[in-house]
Design a protein that fits this description.
By secondary structure, the chain is mostly beta strands. It is built from five helices and 52 strands. The chain has a 26-stranded parallel β-sheet that branches. The longest helix has 6 residues. 41% of the residues are buried.
Length: 666
């Protein structure tokens, strides 16, 4: 069953009734105009398209520029002046201490602006990243074995946990630092294909350094990028990227200038950057800090020290814990690999880390993405299985990389990852760290599907630049709600199905579905035939719970919709039959507590995710379909066992004619 895996996309409080959902939005308020001050060319942050600041994030010394939009979440702060070519959005208790110049509209939902506001056309200073001059040995079809300075191109550098190395400038296929490894860059220009910093790794620079990265830069949590000696300035390390995404891991610290004018740059939760960033899109997650200096300007009363507790060496291995599939008794109970998922006969059933099995690269010849990644889907035990022969084209090969977590933000292994509508690409599984790698053809927009038994599936669309490596945003998979409701459709009484109560910062709620007597249910099979269902085993799982709710959405919402409430409705009998969807002979009311305190009488836009729907419509990307609106109602009192309802918010009980318009009966 697929169509009945509904997710009700946007606002969904109380009982749902009919109306229709349209695209579009309301105009934002316009700020009075005045003369715009001259912009400064000194910046701490420069967004070419957009800048988003998460809750309690801070931007210290330096001006903030955005050619597109700027949004500040709850309690986010900017200390310097702000120049924005487009719209600015301020949320509850967000704070701009300097002047604001914007060319678009200001949406202020409880934010504070201490400086002056200037609203007219804004001309931002043009700031460009250094031009990436591809080394001669990396040019496609080149026979060169040296870089543009005539120096030999080197193979990759990999440091195991606890290892340390000083590295001279040059051209390297990759730099990979395992947990606790320490790499000292002695200064000069480094041209690197890929950089990967594991949790607690340290990347240090001893003198002015430029780090040119061609394909990917990935960082796990608690990474340290620091000057050694500390007297060096942040401008003495420039990290210049030529790829689509860079994310500094949670609780990491970096002292550097970042350039990523072709992609997006994210500072992870509670990370600190002393320096500046330039990127097409910039995201600061919760409590991230960015400043040109470790102290704010005088009278700003804030200090930005490096994050405490940076891990630069691996923690000691715990004793007597069975957590490694190695055919050994690691938990001292005289049993081997017991209770370990994805383990058979001492061998893991999950794919290995690609860096452990990657084909060696010949330093005397240029390496294309096709040649560098062919090992992922070929050979006796490929990481990506089931790829049809000849599917990957030499001139179009690209790699999708991502991580899957559970609701507690823990790595989720064993998730099947494949491409919707493209069985020729086969599939892969997430590894123990939740990461996966998959080779596809570039120049297209694909939908990546994530599935694991016992969890709700999810999908994400990803555009693929030509012959590139794409790191996707984290995805959270939800375990299916354990609460089961058994509905007897032959009962003369109303039957009720409920999900587990959910509580987070927004409030407490419980999803409920009502089945009136005489309701007939049919499972519709893929061939169009139907089968009657006399009993229904129903599970109701909410996706929008807690801080990880946005990552747990089954697909990215259409631009005309806002993240509010989403729920999955599942009929186990239809799942067992492999049905596409379930139909009912009469309306089945759904209601949920008005935990978001919307106004009574408000129409509630509603959308449904159809996993099989591949067509694109302006209002429904990622397989979303608009549905009739719901309605927020209020129970005022009870008379003779019947609820007295207010349907409009006027505080009065509505009569029978008003109830009939919404198909509400006894």
């Amino acid at each position: 069953m697929k169509h009945f895996r509904l997710v009700l996309s946007v606002l969904f409080p109380f009982i749902l009734f009919l109306s229709f959902n349209h695209c579009g939005g309301e105009n934002s308020p316009v700020v009075e105009t005045s003369e715009t001050p001259e912009p400064s060319v000194s910046y701490v942050l420069y967004g070419i398209e957009s800048v988003s600041l998460g809750s309690k994030s801070k931007i210290g010394l330096g001006s903030v520029f955005s050619q597109g939009s700027l949004s500040l979440d709850q309690e986010a702060q900017v200390l310097g002046n702000v120049l924005v070519g487009g719209d600015v959005s301020l949320n509850n208790l967000s704070h701009l201490q300097g002047n604001l110049s914007l060319g678009g509209q200001l949406q202020n939902a409880g934010g504070l602006i201490q400086g002056q506001v200037f609203n007219e056309s804004v001309n931002l200073p043009e700031v460009l990243a250094p031009v990436f001059d591809l080394p001669a040995c990396w040019v496609e079809n080149s026979s060169e074995t040296v870089n543009n300075q005539g120096e030999p191109c080197q193979e990759g550098i990999r440091l195991a946990s606890g290892q340390a190395l000083s590295l001279a400038a040059g051209t390297y296929d990759f730099i990979y630092l395992e947990s606790g490894a320490r790499l000292n860059l002695t200064g000069g220009d480094y041209e690197v294909g890929q950089v990967y910093l594991s949790q607690g790794a340290a990347l240090l620079y001893e003198s002015p350094t430029r780090l040119w990265v061609k394909d990917a830069f990935a960082s796990e949590a608690q990474v340290l990028i620091e000057a050694s000696p500390s007297s060096l300035a942040y401008g003495d390390l420039e990290i210049i990227g030529n790829f689509s995404q860079l994310r500094l891991g949670e609780e990491s610290y970096a002292k550097a200038k970042f350039y990523l004018d072709q992609g997006s740059l994210t500072l992870g939760r509670a990370s600190t950057v002393v320096g500046s960033v330039l990127a097409r899109e910039i995201f600061l997650e919760e409590e991230a800090i960015l400043s040109l200096g470790e102290e704010c300007a005088e009278d700003r009363s804030c200090v930005f020290p490096p994050n405490p507790g940076i891990i630069i060496s691996p923690p000691p291995e715990p004793e007597c814990v069975e957590e490694v599939c190695d055919g050994q008794d690691n938990d001292c109970d005289e049993a081997i690999d017991e209770d370990l998922e994805f383990c058979e006969n001492g061998q893991s059933t999950l794919p290995p880390d690609p860096l452990q099995v990657a084909s060696s690269v010949t330093p005397t010849a240029s390496t294309t993405p096709y040649a560098a990644t062919e090992f992922l889907y070929t050979g006796e035990n490929p990481i990506q299985t089931g790829v049809a022969l000849g599917t990957i084209e030499e001139k179009r090969a690209a790699v999708i990389r991502g991580q899957v977590l559970n609701l507690a933000s823990e790595a989720l292994p064993g998730v099947t990852v494949h491409i919707q509508g493209h069985p020729e690409y086969g599939q892969t599984l997430t590894r123990m760290d939740g990461w996966f790698d998959m080779v596809v053809n570039s120049g297209d927009v694909l939908t990546v599907l994530y599935e694991r038994e016992g969890y709700l599936s999810s999908q994400r669309r990803v555009p693929l630049p030509w012959q590139d490596y794409v790191v996707m945003e984290e995805v959270v998979l939800l375990e299916i709600d354990p609460q089961v409701s058994v509905v007897d459709l032959a009962s003369p009484e109303i039957e009720v199905a409920q999900g587990s109560p959910q509580t987070d910062a927004d409030g407490t709620r419980q999803a409920t579905v009502l089945f009136e007597p005489g309701t007939v249910a049919q499972a519709v099979l893929p061939d169009g035939s139907t089968q009657d269902l006399s009993n229904l085993t129903i599970r109701i799982t909410e996706a929008t719970v807690g801080e990880n709710g946005p990552k747990a959405m089954p697909a990215i919402l259409p631009s005309s919709s806002a993240y509010t409430y989403a729920v999955n409705l599942r009929v186990e009998e239809a799942e067992a039959l492999g049905a596409d969807h379930v139909t009912f002979s009469q309306p089945v009311p759904f209601y949920v507590d008005n935990f978001l305190n919307f106004a009574v009488g408000l129409k509630v836009p509603l959308g449904v995710l159809d996993p099989n729907r591949l067509e694109e419509e302006p209002c429904s990307p990622d397989n979303w379909v608009g549905e009739p609106d719901g309605r927020i109602i209020q129970v005022l009192s009870e008379t003779n066992g019947m609820a007295d309802l207010d349907l409009t918010g006027d505080g009065f009980i509505n009569g029978a004619s008003d109830l009939d318009e919404l198909n509400i009966d006894d």
